[in-house]
Amino acid sequence: MTRGVTIPPGLAGDLTIPPGAAGIVLFAHGSGSSRLSPRNRYVAHVLQSAGLATLLIDLLTPEEERMDQVTAYLRFDIGLLAERLLGATDWLQSDPETRNIRVGYFGASTGAGAALVAAASRRERIGAVVSRGGRPDLAGDALARVKAPVLLIVGGNDDVVIELNQGALEQLPGEKKLEIVPGAGHLFEEPGTLEQVAHLASKWLSSHLAASHA
Question: Which of 28, 105, 121, 203 has the fewest Cβ atoms surrounding its Cβ within 10 A?
């Protein structure tokens, strides 16, 4: 069952908790997107079917969103986005339904950079991170402090982002893996490619969150 939630400072979210969930995945969407992103909602549905809870949130307040539509500035403010993810992570820890469930992050585009910065700040709380077509390089020095296992998923046709992910992979100190989906572009709009992303993410998150939960 999905319920709407509001997380300080007024971020709208959709929380879904399947029975017996061993982990919960907090989504960090990419630049110019929102919790209503059809790609992220598809992946969330696959994760829910695998027994994982999900929280999709807007990382900007409605007022900030209106301002960002004009300036396109806040969507690239990795520090602010990571701060919002940390706030949502702490909210999950305080909510009676989710306080005992291990948290993982699924980040897309710039949201992946924010997810890694947040994971570096909650080293004992975050059980796994997945990046889809992400910009992990935007996490900067925080990459070296990430303890959680990290899966980087990149489209085979997304040449520049592949190089950025390869560079970030070298800086991550813990368990890590780079998966390149053949024939996929940056948004994984090609037939069957998003399904591959969802399968890879589900396998990685289920394995690591269930292990840390146990």
Answer: 203
At 7-56, the pLDDT tens digits run 999 899 999 999 999 899 999 986 666 787 888 999 999 999 999 999 99
When mean pLDDT is compared across 67-81, 136-150, 158-172, the lowest value belongs to 67-81
Does residue 214 register a pLDDT over 50? no
Both tokens of residue 191? 């037939």
Tokens of 103: 């948290």
Mean per-residue pLDDT over the chain, rounded: 91
- CA 203 vs CA 9, 22, 46, 115, 129: distances in Å: 33, 13, 10, 19, 12
Question: Alpha-carbon distance 133 to 159, whole Å?
Answer: 11
Tell me the domain boundaries of the chain. 2-213
Instruction: Determine if the peptide bond prior to 9 is cis (ω within 30°).
Output: yes
Tell the CATH superfamily of the 2-213 domain: Alpha/Beta hydrolase fold, catalytic domain (3.40.50.1820)
Sheet holding 126-132, edge to edge: 2-7, 11-16, 53-57, 23-28, 102-108, 126-132, 150-155, 176-181
ω into 191 cis (within 30 of 0): no
